[in-house]
Design brief:
Elements lengths: L1 H9 L2 E5 L11 H11 L2 E5 L7
Parallel strand pairs: 1-2
Helix pairs in contact: 1-2
Length: about 55
């Protein structure tokens, strides 16, 4: 998660390939998306139609 927090601090927008499910473990995509949103970073979630976990 620490690395993701650094990354979020360096970008203007976060593109996340995420299915919308909660993180399986601390630092998962859901945690990073939530952190970016709390920081005011624009988040764009990408989840192609027909994709599955």
């Amino acid at each position: 998660m620490a690395g993701s927090e650094i990354l979020v601090g360096l970008v203007d927008e976060l593109l996340a390939v995420w299915d919308g499910h909660p993180a399986r473990a601390y630092g998962g995509t859901a945690d990073v998306v939530a952190y970016a949103e709390r920081q005011g970073t624009t988040v764009r979630v990408l989840w192609p139609q027909g994709a599955s976990r």
